[in-house]
Every structure is written in C-alpha cells, then in structure tokens.
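Changelog-adjacent note: as of this version, every example in the card shows the full chain rather than a window. The one below runs 208 residues end to end.
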Amino acid sequence: MTVPSRLAPLLAQFDFARKRLTDRLTGPVMDSGDGTATRIDGPLTDEEHLSEPVPGGWSVRRRADGPGPRATSLAGAGDWGRDAAAYPHPWPPPVTTLAWRLSHLTEMLALRADHTAGGHTLTRNDHPVSGDAATAVAAFDAGAAAWREALLSVDDAALDTVGYCTYPHGSDPEEPFLDIVWWVNQELLHHGAEIALLRDLYRAARAR
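Full-length structure tokens:
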C-alpha cells in the first residue's frame, strides 16, 4: 500500500526518532542530530535500567515486592510491573526511572498497534513488563515495529476517521487517526529525550 502523503513525514519522523533512541540505548554510536556519529559508552545495563535518579521515584518492580512510593498498583503482566496509580495521579508527579519510561513507551506502541491493526483487545494487564535491560530494549523494538506495521496498513480515509484506533488509555476514540499518529511521535520524542538525559546523568554520577 502506498503511504498517504500526509502520513509520510510523520512516518519518517517516527523512524528517525525510533532509531535514534534504540542507538542511544545500545550503541556503539548514535546520530547526534546533524548526521554525525556520537559514541555511546556502552549498551544499557541492568543496573542502569533500574537506577533511581532520586529517592521515592516510580520504577518497574518485582510483583512480589509490591508497588513503590505513592503508587497503588503495578501495571502489566508477568513477574514485573510498572508503578501506577488511579486518577488523579499523585502531585507533584513522581520522578520516573529509565525502566519506567521505556516500559511506558513500549506498552503504548504495542497496544496502539493492536488497537489499530490487530485484535483490538489488548489492555495494560496483558502487556509484559521487563525487569532486565536487554529484554526491555528488545520489547521496545518489537512494539515500535508493530506500530510502524500498523501505520503502513492505513489509507488516507483512515487518517480522517475519528476513533480508527480504539486504544483504551487515551483520547483515541475522540480523535482523527492522524492526530493520534502525531501524538505517538511526540511521546516517542519527549520520552526518548528523557531517557537520553537519564543516561547522561547516570554516566556523570558514576564518573564522580
């Protein structure tokens, strides 16, 4: 299927942001933004994945240990879960770890892919949460690939269809699909930038 002209620039932006984040997590180099290669110290480790930049933050945790400070549940499936709380969320918002942010992105991509071109059934309780770095990075890549495949399945009419994506944890039922594509991109861009900063802070703290 030909990519609709309105979708093409958003797809290109998604591809760039996805590769940049994956390379930032794995190395050995990443695009600095101007086409030059920036060296990455090394791939994400388990210690860094779960490192807490400040006390009392939210993370992913073994389900047997229960939720963290101010969280009331652990979202996801499997032996690990992601700190969560029902609305209204705690204020001020908890600082979240790299593991939390990467899990959030992965879940959003995988579930929106399902609710666009899959069975339209997956919920947060179905999505596995990864406790180790390698599995978390692989899960992110799989979620991103599924979302990209879903985008390639849509035509121009779908972009204007309100509720084309039935993702249950956002405004998808009230928004044209093109707006949802834009929203997913900004989620990837801003959480990707947060993850990159957390890597920088972790490296600097270890250097001290």
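Structural remarks: Residues 177-207 form the longest helix (31 residues).
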